[in-house]
From TrEMBL:
<dbReference type="GO" id="GO:0016887">
    <property type="term" value="F:ATP hydrolysis activity"/>
</dbReference>
<dbReference type="GO" id="GO:0006302">
    <property type="term" value="P:double-strand break repair"/>
</dbReference>
<dbReference type="InterPro" id="IPR038729">
    <property type="entry name" value="Rad50/SbcC_AAA"/>
</dbReference>
<protein>
    <recommendedName>
        <fullName>Rad50/SbcC-type AAA domain-containing protein</fullName>
    </recommendedName>
</protein>
<keyword id="KW-0175">Coiled coil</keyword>
<dbReference type="GO" id="GO:0000731">
    <property type="term" value="P:DNA synthesis involved in DNA repair"/>
</dbReference>
<feature type="domain" description="Rad50/SbcC-type AAA">
    <location>
        <begin position="6"/>
        <end position="303"/>
    </location>
</feature>
<dbReference type="InterPro" id="IPR027417">
    <property type="entry name" value="P-loop_NTPase"/>
</dbReference>
<feature type="coiled-coil region">
    <location>
        <begin position="215"/>
        <end position="315"/>
    </location>
</feature>
<dbReference type="Pfam" id="PF13476">
    <property type="entry name" value="AAA_23"/>
</dbReference>
């Protein structure tokens, strides 16, 4: 990774003359009171390495007779200079060959020079940056799309299931009813069959009366015609036998009642209405149960997609343990961006910026007073462990500051105060 070995700057914004040799890794804090030139040091680095896009609107220090002069030495041996009224760029590589801004752009991260651009980016832009790093953006977006689709589908199924269930509960139900509607034609046929059987019974009764009449006539003829006794006896015997058979077959006959069928015919529509109501309730309950099962199935699918997303992020090469993306939001230790502390936001930003351009080993950071001294020490320790260089400003004159800027110069820096000093001469690099 490429870091900054040395910075010399004159007459830029509030700076008169400053020389800085930041720590190779960890935190270099530029301290001082407001308006003394701390941020101007960061502006000098950004303009020197980032190009015209980072040129201050009014770069020349008020009251200065000479234009700004910038001199930056990088850890790969490249020397970057900007000087003159137009801030002309000169880039010299270790072999002495001259090059330009294109060479710097190959390894200098624009976000490293402009951390607020990342800090103030939208949630979607931060997430996109992280997904670009870990190379699973397309897969994760597809999983998020699928989860959203399943969630919306499940939500609609659940809504319909609740509605169906409530409707089924409000439907009337009649116990002890047949499951199928009663047929009027079947009832009429049954009634006709009973009437036919009753008609047959009546025919048999008429037959009994006829047989009894025949017997009586035969008996009368017998008494009146003794002379034809032999012939009459045969007739009498046969008539008696027939009468006995007919009487015997009819003596236990009972007519069936059609009262119940007539009542059913009168109530058949009411009964069928109840049967249909029962069937509708059972159908609604069945549909509600089926929708509930579909809802549970969609829930299992959603959990599966979430598990796949977690596995995908678990296997990804994340720039910082605890980082993840969910529903287009960047998360750190389960907290969204606005739920992180200021220190955590800076840590996440530095880790992502470093990963976006691994060759660039430094980050500029303004207004570090949001960290207390303990957090500052922890942040610096983490930077050293990661081999990262952060050059930051802080409104403070305490011991945590690497240098103090006062009235555009490094406080108590004899080389910066006296232009004739061999280490640093104003306007001469």
């Amino acid at each position: 990774m490429i870091t900054i070995n040395e910075l010399q700057v004159e007459n830029l914004k509030k700076i008169k003359a400053v020389k800085l040799e930041p720590s190779a890794s960890g935190l270099t804090v530029i301290g001082g009171k407001n308006g003394q030139g701390k941020t101007s040091v960061l502006d000098a680095i950004a303009w020197a390495l980032g190009g015209e896009k980072f040129r201050p609107t009014n770069p020349k220090r008020d009251g200065s007779l000479t234009p700004p002069n910038l001199h930056v030495v990088l850890s790969n041996g490249i020397i970057v200079e900007r000087k003159g009224a137009n801030g002309s760029l000169k880039v010299i590589d270790p072999t002495g060959k001259k090059s330009g801004q294109r060479l710097l752009d190959e390894f200098i991260s624009k976000l490293a020079l402009n951390l607020p651009a990342f800090l103030h980016a939208s949630e979607a832009e931060k997430s996109k940056a992280l997904l670009q790093i870990i190379g699973v953006g397309d897969k994760l977006m597809e999983m998020d799309r699928k989860e959203e689709q399943l969630y919306n589908q499940r939500k609609e199924v659940g809504r319909i299931a609740d509605r169906k269930k409530k409707a089924a509960e409000e439907m009337p139900f009649y116990p002890n009813m047949p499951t199928e509607p009663v047929s009027v034609s079947d009832l009429l046929k049954e009634q006709q069959d009973i009437l036919a059987r009753n008609g047959e019974n009546e025919r048999k009764r008429i037959n009994v009366r006829e047989m009894q009449g025949r017997f009586m006539r035969a008996e009368s003829n017998y008494k009146a015609a003794m002379e034809a006794l032999k012939a009459a006896e045969d007739t009498l015997r046969k008539a008696r036998a027939d009468a006995e058979v007919a009487a015997k077959s009819a003596q236990d006959l009972q007519d069936e009642s059609t009262t119940e069928l007539e009542e059913n015919l009168r109530n058949v529509e009411v009964m069928n209405g109840k049967i249909r109501a029962n069937a509708a309730k059972e159908g609604a309950e069945l549909e509600a149960n089926n929708l509930q099962q579909e809802y549970e199935g969609l829930t299992e699918q959603i959990e599966s997609v979430r598990s796949d997303r977690a596995d995908l992020l678990k296997e990804a090469d994340l720039p910082l343990p605890g980082l993840s993306v969910k529903d287009g939001h960047l998360l750190y230790k389960g907290e969204p961006w606005d739920g992180m502390s200021g220190a955590e936001q800076l840590k996440v930003a530095v880790a992502i910026i470093r990963k976006l351009n691994p060759e660039c080993g430094f980050v500029l950071m303004d207004k570090l007073e949001q960290m207390d001294t303990d957090t500052l020490r922890e942040f610096g320790k983490w930077l050293e462990e990661e081999g990262l260089q952060v050059i930051a400003t802080r409104v403070s004159t305490g011991d945590e500051c690497s240098i103090i800027i006062e009235d555009g110069m490094v406080k108590d820096d004899e080389s910066a105060v006296k232009p004739q000093a061999s280490k640093f001469v104003k306007g001469v690099f």
